[in-house]
Design brief:
By secondary structure, the chain is mainly beta. It has a domain of 136 residues: Immunoglobulin-like (Sandwich). 14% of the residues lie in helices and 38% in strands. The chain is built from two helices and nine strands; from the N terminus they run H-E-H-E-E-E-E-E-E-E-E. About 29% of the residues have low confidence.
């Protein structure tokens, strides 16, 4: 009998906590009419041109407003969102569910079939375009892939690009260059060596 009273009290307290948390933010000021895009997006791979003749070719490649009193809300000026900008670029051989690089690096094995570039952006945009240009720097240099992704966000976002090669990558130096609306904003060099 004593055990069921404790269990009932525990369930009641848990339910009350869930209800309180569920009601959190119900009286916040409304957000702008444009719904924000997902905070994470992933670019689709593109087909890459042939690599140098000595190696196999790659196959593919919100701001929340806090509640305010009527007097302070009437006198507050509207908040102007910062324009979209790139905050961070990471290169690695694996990503998690949030599209973040889990194994960042600047040196990879030729057997690493997929290489990712994760771009963290801040600010807002209703239709910016991010582009990742992957290049093989050895010899006369060669474009491996160029992938573009449209992004619309009202806060921090992560966009992930990838290049894939079902065969071994040619050894040498590579670069991924990120541009935002056609302007270069970040680049990272990396190297691929023997497996």
């Amino acid at each position: 009998m004593n055990r069921s009273i404790r269990t009932t009290a525990l369930y009641s307290a848990t339910l009350a906590g869930v209800l309180l948390l569920g009601a959190c933010g119900k009286h916040e000021t409304p957000t702008p009419a444009n719904p924000p895009a997902s905070a994470s997006t992933a670019a689709t791979p593109a087909t890459a041109p042939a690599a140098p003749s000595t190696a196999a070719a790659p196959a593919t490649t919100g701001s929340a407003a806090s509640p305010a009193t009527a007097a302070s809300a009437a006198s507050a000026a509207p908040v102007v969102a910062a324009p979209l900008s790139v905050a961070k670029l990471s290169v690695g051989d694996a990503v998690d569910a949030r599209h973040q690089i889990t194994h960042p690096g600047d040196s990879f094995a030729s057997s690493d079939n997929t290489i990712y570039a994760s771009v963290t952006t801040v600010g807002s945009s209703s239709g910016a375009t991010l582009n990742a240009k992957w290049s093989y720097l050895e010899g006369s240099g060669q474009l491996v892939s160029s992938i573009s992704q449209a992004i619309a966000t009202d806060g921090p976002a992560i966009t992930t690009f990838k290049v894939q090669n079902p065969d071994l990558w040619p050894e040498g130096k590579y670069r991924v260059e990120i541009s935002l609306d056609g302007k270069s904003v970040a680049k990272q060099d990396f190297e691929i060596g023997k497996s």
